[in-house]
């Protein structure tokens, strides 16, 4: 699963993505990776936002990590590695592409 949308986007994409993820797990599907890229990294940068908190609760409930693009974290949001707290995890495009190529389906929000 690829999240490109900020938590406060007018499209509500983050909330839709979370609903999709919850539904997928309820139907016994496996989420190989939840990867936040581009504006989606704002979920890490603004942890107090309602949507970010919902994703964090979802990850903790299901024992998942929320992977964020390390380049975007550093370059666009000027955050240090020490700013990344569980359930968020620094990752890269290589890991994302590897997970996406092994998955049956890739969904993007």
UniProtKB/TrEMBL annotation:
Domain of life of the source: Bacteria
Question: Which residue windows are coiled coil?
Answer: none
What the entry lists under SUPFAM superfamilies is as follows: DsrEFH-like (SSF75169)
Gene3D superfamilies, sorted? DsrEFH-like
Q: Which GO terms describe its biological process?
A: tRNA wobble position uridine thiolation
A Gene Ontology molecular function term of the record:
sulfur carrier activity
User: Which GO CC terms are listed, alphabetically?
Assistant: sulfurtransferase complex
Q: Which InterPro entries match?
A: DsrEFH-like, Sulphur_relay_DsrE/F-like
Question: Per its UniProt record, what PANTHER family does this chain match?
Answer: PROTEIN YCHN (PTHR34874), SULFURTRANSFERASE TUSD (PTHR34874:SF3)
Name recorded for this polypeptide: Uncharacterized protein
Q: Give the organism the record lists.
A: Pseudidiomarina taiwanensis
* Taxonomic placement: Bacteria, Pseudomonadati, Pseudomonadota, Gammaproteobacteria, Alteromonadales
């Amino acid at each position: 699963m690829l999240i490109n949308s900020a938590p406060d986007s007018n499209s509500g994409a983050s909330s839709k993505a979370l609903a999709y993820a919850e539904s997928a797990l309820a139907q016994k599907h496996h989420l190989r990776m939840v990867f936040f890229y581009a504006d989606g990294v704002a979920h890490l940068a603004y942890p107090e936002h309602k949507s970010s908190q919902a994703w964090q609760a979802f990850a903790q409930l299901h024992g998942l990590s929320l992977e964020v693009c390390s380049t975007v974290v550093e370059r666009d949001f000027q955050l240090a590695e020490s700013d990344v707290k569980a359930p968020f995890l620094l990752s890269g495009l290589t890991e994302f592409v590897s997970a996406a190529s092994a998955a049956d389906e890739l969904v993007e929000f």
